[in-house]
Design brief:
Layout (H helix, E strand, L loop, with lengths): L4 H15 L5 H8 L3 H10 L6 E6 L16 E7 L5 H6 L1 H6 L8
Antiparallel strand pairs: 1-2
Helix pairs in contact: 1-3
Length: about 110
């Protein structure tokens, strides 16, 4: 299936935010191997694709190894897929990930 790689990058990122535990930039970077700035820009553009993401500051994150790292002491939460259907993304996840050179699992 031929899919638009730009759309797939945003769908894959939305999927990871929706499914990873503690999806902050360092964790997303480790999962995708994308540069920090690429991830930050893509997250910032998700609302333009109709996807609602919120950053939740987690002041208790020091228990998870982020003590003293205020900017990493939080994570993203996907609030709304917008016009995209999560079930469709799940069903086509292999194609979505393949179009942006991501492995399905680590």
């Amino acid at each position: 299936m031929a899919l638009n790689p730009t759309l797939c990058r945003h769908l894959a990122l939305a999927w990871l935010i929706d499914t990873l535990e503690h999806p902050n930039v360092p964790n997303l970077q480790a999962r995708t191997d994308w540069p920090r700035r690429t991830l930050q820009d893509a997250i910032k553009r998700l609302p333009a694709w109709g996807i609602t993401v919120e950053y939740v500051q987690d002041y208790h994150a020091s228990d998870t190894g982020f003590k003293g790292q205020q900017h990493n002491a939080g994570y993203y939460v996907l609030r709304d897929w917008g016009m995209y259907r999560r079930d469709w993304v799940k069903q086509h996840l292999a194609d979505v990930f393949a179009s942006v050179d991501l492995a399905l699992s680590e």
